[in-house]
Amino acid sequence: MRLKPEQNRLDMGKITEKLLLEKCTPKNTKLEQVKTLNxxxxxxxxxDLPVPLLSRLRCxxxxxxxxxxxxxxxxxxxxxxxxSLDLTNNEMEDVxxxxxxxxxEDLRTEDNLYVTVSDNYKLMILLxxxxxxxxxxxxxxxxxxxxxxxxxxxxxxxxxxxTSFSLPDHRTAEKLAIVERDFVxxxxxxxxxxxxxxxxxxxxxxxxIAKEHLHSLTEPNEEYRDAEEPADTKENCSFPFPAKRKRSxxxxxxxxxxxxxxxxxxxxxxxxxxxxxxxxxSTPHKAxxxxxxxxxxxxxxxIPATPTRGQSKLLVTPRNGLREQQHQSKEDxxxxxxxxxxxxxxxxxxxxxxxxxxxxVICTKSLHSSQEPVSLQPLxxxxxxxxxxxxxxxxxxxxxxxxxxxxxxxGDVNGATRIVxxxxxxxxxxxxxxxxxxxxxxxxxxxxFFSLAxxxxxxxxxxxxxxxxxxxxxxxxxxxxxxxxxxxxxxxYGEFRASRKALSIxxxxxxxxxxLFTGSYDKNxxxxxxxxxxxxxxxxxxxxxxxxxxxxxxxxxxxxxTPDTHLIAACEExxxxxxxxLNKDPKKRSEEMEITFPVYEKDKDHDYHTIDGLGFLTDxxxxxxxxxxxxxxxxxxxDTRAQWPNNxxxxxxxxxxxxxxxxxxxxxxxxxxxxxxxxxxxxVVCGDERGRLWTYHVTDLNANFRSGKAIPATEILExxxxxxxxxxxxxxxxxxxxxxxxxxxxxxxxxxKNMAVVWIRTESS
Length: 765
Description:
It is built from nine helices and 43 strands.
């Protein structure tokens, strides 16, 4: 989507000396003599503030920047006489960028959605002269934070140093850096003080104190000046929420081998859910286990919490060449030796052996992908969806994952962040793939989430003075409710009932972010308009279409070239195409055609109609697989659709997919092991029942693949054999879902044993 520029927004680079002199009061002819400046409601972003020009305002005492789009103050800005600053109604996130404005006495930050209670505390430390905050005299509270609170934290930090740390005998820069890293990591995890809403502030403050203490020991004659915020506190917010596949036996202990069972989905009648809107707060994290949080109403700014590190991780033994993880905490378990090929289990023995010779897949369609395959290495294994946060939970099944899109100023999706959303059990987690931290956690007791999807909608600014894009997350499961989340603001801002039965799949339109498709166990696909939200998070949902199916929908795809006209639904009983044009009648429709596959006729002794994997590799090439097929089809959507007679009769037409290639995959009787595609890199990836990832690098070289032989995988990534302390390695589970970011920097695989595995592309690739 693209936003209309605000009428009063300045052109880029137009803050000039002339403008500053026009906006000052009283009028002046020299910047060096300006004392009051009003730059409000100009649509300014942080990058629009020219530091060299503003730094000439050496006598500036009052600055009004309200009603802009500032996320932080520009680096290096120093205004030595500034006493009053108004940042009302901006988008401030990083308050530590105000640290250079040490002369501030009066500051306003109302209507900044992302400024938290912890941020308020940080400001009291960073701005030693601050006396008025948001119009209130905070002198007493500020002094308590600066002195009493800081002294209590300092005592705890020094006690931890005395009991657990000391300076190395032979001091080198490298050894001191290691001591600082370990000490800072320890105080951030072990020093607990104050309410849970201040966890983020506490970790930030004790890190500062720890560095000050080390500096006083190593450089006692120098004044310590490092007051930077920890790198991982900028976006670290953990906050709560609330099997699709049921096995007759579940693995509770990691050393138990389970024979695979035929998996059946269970439709659960939805129950009433919590209230529509709530702000979510965190509880303190213990270092030994992952902690979720519970929602409660909160009228003030949202509360960031400290992300979970190490405690929800299993340790992965990296392959050769993988860089070591940085900042490992003392609670992290030691790495164990790993074999690349797991011992055969009963489950593995039941699987049909296949040819696993790596081979590059060459497609007849031009895919514009890179010519060399990438190299992936395991980086993190996390166990963050546990029931009651138990580290012994290896039975919760994880079902869906998706990378958060990155937005540019106009609201257009521009790649993806390194944040991936995962769902399973009663929680939705947001994980930083680089650090392995669980940044946010949403939990709804009694829910079981099966699907999630990201989108971008418009949020109106305070007073309806403009619109801005915001990235939202929708999640749904057995209750039939769609939860709408705004993770950046730590808000579960609403919900609506999409079905009286469980939801199986959610998907937003890539072209219109307000259009949401839901699939449910009542055998219906519904199209909704969820609209945008106002500054108070009010929203309205309208049902637009009902698409009838004969079985439960499992996956949706909207053809990249025609996302407004067609929807392809992979269901329990086949693959179906629907016309979703809103200018057509009726509003309740059946499928236009069923797409069939050669495997249907090849083996009539088995039912291969369950389509449990679907994804577009290009605007035309589709990857799909059927249950028990043992391979993945690549087929042409355009050529297949061209066979549809379009005779406008009410009889459902069957059209055979135009197969371009068949990719060899595992032969297993376990359904719902879905695939994923990365179009920019030409990759198809699908997990199997042994924890392995089958990767296929599809190039743009021409070849004829109508020989009937399946193409082997480019590489099969073995299960990384994570180890839990005292329990040995965890054998390979079934991989229910995989996701890749658009540039294939990271790959995330979710298992049926409550483990999320993050893979990273190595530098060599």
